[in-house]
Amino acid sequence: MRPQVLIATRTFGSTSEEPWRILSEAGCEYGRIDITSATEDQMIASFENVDAAIVGGRPITAAMIAGANRLKVIAMHGVGVDHIDRAAAQKKGVVVANAPGANSNSVADLAFGLMLAAFRRIPQQAQALAGGAWTSEVGIELWQKTIGIVGLGHIGRAVARRAHGFEMCVLAYDPMLPEEAFAGSGSRSVSLEELLTSSDVVTLHAPSTPATRGFINADRLQSMKRTAFLINTARGDLVDEDALYHALSAGDIAGAGLDAYAEEPPTNSRLLTLANVVATPHIGSHTEEAVTRASVMSAQNVVEVLRTGAAKWPAW
To answer: What digits encode the pLDDT tens for the residues 105-120?
Structure first.
């Protein structure tokens, strides 16, 4: 019997035929489920008789994994795997893999796009112009400002490279990295407290873990410059959104650029009502190049696990 692969992400293979070729040449058959409309029960049923699943950002729960007696691998079509139940996967002996670095340049580009948009109030002025106003609102240069990068993984390092092009002073905080990693990125290792108090823009590129959830809280927002901006293209739950709303409303910080939210979509989020917020709908990895890389890497992960039992890029 040919291996059965469940495609549980909308963008897999949407920009290239290569990932489909990889699966087909390995003898795999595949089917897709619409994750936007599927109920939890439908998701559970879709996992029951497959050997592999390529997934996106929808939570992969313990119930989905528990009934999947043939499942050998869950391949994330991207990087973050905090939405996949780790304990359930380990209990069933299911390999979880991801695509490290696939979207690094795309997310770093968006982070800088949000910085520029926030510093120069580009969306607000474009909207005003479309409405017939000819405004002359004064913005702020990004050139030679101090940037604080929280999390110096693939994406954080890509942001650092771009920051050097703007002749920025690059500070970084990542307690998981050895000191030499900072020098290699052209950044200076500092404490989180120094980063927050010294930076003109703070950009988040940390994973969601028990230690990082909500760690940008009211006290840490208060410690930032009143002229500083917060950028989040990582995970929404890194930020206490109520505290951020109050900080932005009170002028404790100047503005924010957001691509990730605690609840997605961010239904009735008060942050989206603020004039000093630039917001996008979690599009950091949505470029042709990133989608192609993630699709190819997730297909390779599936094939490698089915052949050898080990992923090319294991997540854990």
So the answer is: 999 999 999 999 999 9
Going from the C-alpha of 266 to that of each of 72, 234, 271, 310, the distances in angstroms are 34, 15, 9, 37
Which CATH superfamily hosts domain 104-279? Answer: NAD(P)-binding Rossmann-like Domain (3.40.50.720)
Q: Where does the chain hold its CATH 3.40.50.720 domain(s)?
A: 4-102+287-308, 104-279
Q: pLDDT for 39-55, tens place per residue?
A: 999 999 999 999 999 99
Phi-psi region of 117 (alpha: psi -120 to 50; beta: other; left: phi over 0): alpha
Cα 298 from Cα 11, distance rounded (Å): 12
According to the CATH classification, is domain 4-102+287-308 in 3.40.50.720? yes
What residues are annotated to the active site? 235, 264, 282
pLDDT at 302 (0 to 100):
98
Question: Cα–Cα distance between 92 and 69 in angstroms, integer?
Answer: 8
